[in-house]
Design brief:
Strands 12-15-14-13-16-17 form a six-stranded antiparallel beta barrel. The chain folds into three domains: 177 residues, Rossmann fold; 60 residues, Adenine nucleotide alpha hydrolases-like domains (SH3 type barrels); 83 residues, Elongation Factor Tu (Ef-tu), domain 3. Helices cover 24% and strands 29% of the residues. The N and C termini lie far apart (64 Å). The longest helix is centred in the first third of the chain and has 20 residues. Helix 1 runs parallel beside helix 2, helix 1 crosses helix 7 and helix 3 packs antiparallel against helix 4. The relative contact order is 0.13. It is of the alpha/beta class.
Amino acid sequence: MNTRHEKVIVGLSGGVDSALAAARLLQAGYAVEGLFMKNWEEDDEPGYCAAEADLEMAREVAAILEIPLHKANYAADYWHRVFAHFLDEYRAGRTPNPDILCNREIKFPALLDHARRLGATRVASGHYATVEHTDRGSRLLRARDEGKDQTYFLYGLEQHQLRPTLFPLGEMWKSEVRAEARALGLPNHARKDSTGICFIGEKRFRDFLSQYLSAPPGEICTPEGRVLGQHPGLMYFTLGQRQGLGIGGVEGAGDAPWYVVAKDTGRNRLIVAQGADHPLLLSTGLTATDPHWILGAPSAGEPLSIRIRHRQPLQRARITRIDAAGLQVRFETPQRAVTPGQSIVFYRDRECLGGAVISAAAGEAEGPDPV
């Protein structure tokens, strides 16, 4: 395909991945323009989301590549379509993943909107993923670099969003990306990757969340009902968490570390037990809602690969029930810390088929019931 002068809008974040994506598209002959999206209004204290530093880096990259850089503020949309849902989920005792919703509701709609207004036919980003366009539609494929693969965050995209999208880094290793960016003289070739949730930044998660939600303290208990201490609010903890429990030594309990194994929202109790693989942390399956399929749903009973969290090694599972309202999944081997609010994402070989939002773990391994 002759790409000469075909215009593409690249989401430039200030990071090395989006910078090299733009550079590679230029090398391929596209007419490239950048878009910097601001999705969060920072408070007065510097260093939390670092939007200004990110914008300045995006400007430097655009200047070196000699491409136009557009800027757009989507903070209001982000608040109403992503952050409000984030808070609602924590109020309900679940642990949401805002990055999945942001890609579907903000980032890719914004890129496509700007592409239309600027007369572009393509959009692109520095995500580690690949799109394969077929007669049936566009397939989302895992990246070559499994450690950086981001299809977990992209499973919610629609066909009209995938069809014009390019992921120039999908076949590259992260080490290759940094080396090529350095060779091209890009100023962010060694810049640290962003981690966690942008709108929290360097703040302690507990401090950030307490600005928006109130959480009554309650008891920390063993599954048998022994009270070990007090927690500052259930919303500050997630299943499988070890750090920040503040239990200390427990008489007669030994030295094994303690983990969150359940949250009793009815009685406002945090249930903890010793051992990373305590039976209450292991589940043989799950139920999920709001399924989204990129090119049609798989068949119930088909052996598939799944992830229940980003960067988890692929696991084997089967969907035992599937309909428009939700689905039920059984794992080939028990999975640890199945967390309501997170997503389960399904794969057939390299193809990302879609996913759903986890509503509950099912079939916990045998152990005492939390009291």
